[in-house]
Amino acid sequence: MVSQKKEKGYTISAVSETFGLHPQTLRLYERQGLIRPGRSKGNTRYYSERDMKRLELILTLTRDLGVNLAGVEVILNMRDKMDAMQREMQRFLEHLRTEVGERMANRVSERFALVPMSQASLFRKSPPRG
User: According to the model, what pLDDT value does residue 130 have?
Assistant: First the structure.
């Protein structure tokens, strides 16, 4: 995918080239709080795999769906909160399994139709229609 992968992640030039973005666009996304690349001791930005996936989502929202950056921020914040709620529910289910039993945990899980956000099709591209 990217040839300039370092130990801590991808450099800004590699990410810029991979996604066809100007480095200033990546810096803008960082200033807006949409992505948070790590930094080396020399203050070089390094983008993790997680940053790359988040950036891919940002580009899907902006390029493919026409969402502006304010909308992207709202969507990403909501998605982060939903992920946190999903993790909390999973912890609750694990507690139920240990305290009450597998059967009750399965009933709760089925009742709330728990699907991890990573598996949700909310932002996946749908095939073109006939």
Answer: 47
Are 53 and 85 found together in one domain?
no
For residue 63, the 8-state DSSP code is I
Q: In the chain, which ranges are continuous DSSP H helix?
A: 12-19, 23-31, 49-59, 69-99, 102-111
| Total domain count, the chain | 2
| Residue found under tokens 């203050």 | 43
User: What is the three-class DSSP state of 39?
Assistant: strand
* Global confidence as pTM: 0.69
Nearest to 34 by CA among 66, 82, 72, 67: 72
Token digits for 3?
Answer: 């040839």
